[in-house]
Amino acid sequence: MNRANLTVPNLLTASRLALVPFVVWYLAQDRLDVAFWLFAAAALTDLLDGNLARLLNQRSVLGAWLDPIADKAMLLSTLMMLVWLEILPLWLGALVALRDVIVLLGAAAFRQLTGGLEVAPTWWGKAATAAEFVLVALALADLALGWGLTFLGYLTLLTGTLVSVSGLHYVWVWSAKTRAWRAAQARFRS
């Protein structure tokens, strides 16, 4: 790793990525308390890394790439483990995976077509990710700390709805970008 990339924010982000297999392992071993506290530590690094990057003026290209990868790896792996443990429903795991595959394929197809790619999360995408995070965090907390939360079913439905809407919105956004690019190419050739 380049010395310029050895910043406190990047190290925090890397530590979040490094925690992923441990959270998965402890969930698989039915050590829900340890998995919850590791997930909570990862969430804390997520709160700190971006704020510290701005505060310390240590923004970097590596951090801009690594942060969403670490977020997605932690969230998706924990959510899928909760589905595997039958804590969250299979349909939600399938819906989240399908939406993520559609987004990745749409981005790859647009990049292949145009040679460029500017990725910007939409409001719907952010809302879906926030709902996924809250659901996973509360489900883990409920399991590890025995809170007896009775509203997780409703939160699951809300999360599924937001994931569906965000997936459809991403399809609409990529389609609109593709149509605009093709129209610009047609005007250029004329």
UniProtKB/TrEMBL annotation:
Keywords: Lipid biosynthesis, Lipid metabolism, Membrane, Phospholipid biosynthesis, Phospholipid metabolism, Transferase, Transmembrane, Transmembrane helix
Principal EC category: transferase
A biological process term (GO) from this entry: glycerophospholipid biosynthetic process
Gene Ontology MF term list: CDP-diacylglycerol-glycerol-3-phosphate 3-phosphatidyltransferase activity
Pathway: Phospholipid metabolism; phosphatidylglycerol biosynthesis; phosphatidylglycerol from CDP-diacylglycerol: step 1/2
Chemical reaction(s) catalysed: a CDP-1,2-diacyl-sn-glycerol + sn-glycerol 3-phosphate = a 1,2-diacyl-sn-glycero-3-phospho-(1'-sn-glycero-3'-phosphate) + CMP + H(+)
Segment forming the signal sequence: none
A UniProt-annotated Pfam family: CDP-OH_P_transf
Domain of life according to the entry: Bacteria
Subcellular location: Membrane
Annotated coiled-coil segments of the chain: none
Residue ranges of the TM segments: 7-28, 123-145, 151-172
Membrane topology: Multi-pass membrane protein
Similarity section: Belongs to the CDP-alcohol phosphatidyltransferase class-I family.
Protein name, entry field: CDP-diacylglycerol--glycerol-3-phosphate 3-phosphatidyltransferase
Species classification: Bacteria, Pseudomonadati, Pseudomonadota, Betaproteobacteria, Nitrosomonadales
